[in-house]
Every structure is written in structure tokens, then in C-alpha cells.
Amino acid sequence: MIGYLEGKLLKIEQDRILLLANQVGYEVLLPAIVMETLKTKEIGDELSLYIFYQQTDRQPKPVLIGFNLEAEKEFFQHFISVEDIGPLKAVKAMNIPVRDIARAIETKDTARLKQLKGIGNRTAQKIIATLKGKMEKFALISKTEPTQIPVDEDFTKKVLNVLVDQLGHKTADAKQMIAEALIRNRAVSTPEELFEEVYRGETAS
After folding, report:
1. Domain limits at 154?
2. What is the pLDDT of residues 24-50, one digit of tens each?
3. Are residues 159 and 113 part of one domain?
4. Count of CA atoms in the C-beta half-sphere (13 A) of 158
5. Most Cβ neighbours (<10 Å): which of 81, 107, 132, 142?
6. How many domains does the chain have?
7. For residue 146, is pLDDT > 60?
8. Positive or negative, the Cα torsion across 14, 16, 18, 19?
9. What does DSSP say about strands 24-29 and 63-67: parallel, antiparallel, or unpaired?
10. pLDDT, mean of residues 142-161
């Protein structure tokens, strides 16, 4: 199974690319949100992607779907667990940032979810019913660049690692988010409580 590819960009099409990795050309489908990030790329540039690999009895030909962040791939795996949303439909639907989709799910914003390509009111309701309560992590995917505030507490390290390694935040940004959460709620004493407070702070902003 292929979970990650790093190589040279050989070709860009409307919804997919051809990536040369270890002398093999891989055709990789990309959601619109990922394709958007390739606007600054040129043929021959280096590119790395987290890969969702799909192959079933009904669909024996392997399908590779690429993401910039491991968290985006993880969100995609949640997304396709919703009834009537398969991998190919999900790829087409993801035309707004994952953090915005996640926040829409958590706030039951069906109007926002219906902005996803191919998603109507009924499917939006299914998405909320299936995924609400599981999206806090993805709502924290990096967007802004605040200044650094030092954070030294030991129990923050786990949350810091998730924000940086999985959600794409710079270390300085993640430290500020954590520091602000600790200022808002000084009773926080576990990574789980801290993560929830960080999420609350981001969604309130």
C-alpha cells in the first residue's frame, strides 16, 4: 500500500497530476483544495504528498488520492465514512478548505456544507449526523500566522506535536495557540483538555 510519495512533477491536468517517484510515474487525483496549492509549481518541481490508496473488488484499478497534510488525508478517511460519499465523490466535493468543512460540521452549518460540489441538503445532514464531534482536530489546520508566545509546560508537548506535525502549524504559531488557551483556562491539566481549549479559542476567533 502507498501512503506517501515524494518526487518530481511531470504533468498537471484538471483534477490530477503525474508524479515521478523512484523512476515510476504515479497518477494521483487531487481535491480542488490541493490542486489550488500547485499554482506556484512548475513541471520538474519537487513535490511530496500523503496518499490515500483505494482498491476494491468492484474497482480493481488502484486509485491514488493526494493531500498536502497528513491531517487532510485523515479527514478524507472520516469523510468517506459518511453514507453515499465514496472516495471519488469526496475528491470532487472538497473544494473548500478542510478546516472550513470541519467547522461547518461542528456548528451544523448545512448552508456551508452545501457549497461542497455535489453535496445537497440531505447529504449535508448525513455528514453532520455522522461526523459531528469528531472534527475539532481538523478545524485547527493552519491558516493564520500569529506571533510566538513561549510555552514550557510538559503536558503541552503532545498537543504541540499534533498541531505542528499533523495539522501544519509552525512551531511558533502552535506555541502561541497553546499559551493563549492556558491563559483562558488555567485549570487545564491534560493534553485532551488543552486540545479542546485550543479548539474553542480558534472557533471563537
Report:
1. 142-204
2. 999 999 999 999 888 888 899 999 999
3. no
4. 8
5. 142
6. 3
7. no
8. positive
9. parallel
10. 61
pLDDT value, residue 152: 43
pLDDT reported for residue 57: 67
Give the chain as a DSSP string.
---EEEEEEEEE-SSEEEEEETTEEEEEE--HHHHGGGGG--TT-EEEEEEEEE--SS--S-EEEEESSHHHHHHHHHHTTSTT--HHHHHHH--S-HHHHHHHHHTT-HHHHTTSTT--HHHHHHHHHHHTTS-TTGGGS----PPP-----GGGHHHHHIIIIIT---HHHHHHHHHHHHHH-TT--SHHHHHHHHHHHHHH-
> C-alpha cell of 30?
487531487
Distance CA 14, CA 152 (A): 46
Residue 27 near residue 53 (C-beta atoms within 8 A): no
Q: What proportion of the chain, given as a percentage, has pLDDT over 90? A: 59
pLDDT of residue 157: 86
CB atoms within 10 A of CB 84: 10
Measuring CA to CA, which residue among 153, 158, 205, 154 is closest to residue 179? Answer: 153
Domain boundary at 14, 45, 67, which? Answer: 67
- Tell me the average pLDDT of the chain: 88
C-alpha to C-alpha distance for 139 and 133, rounded to whole angstroms: 11
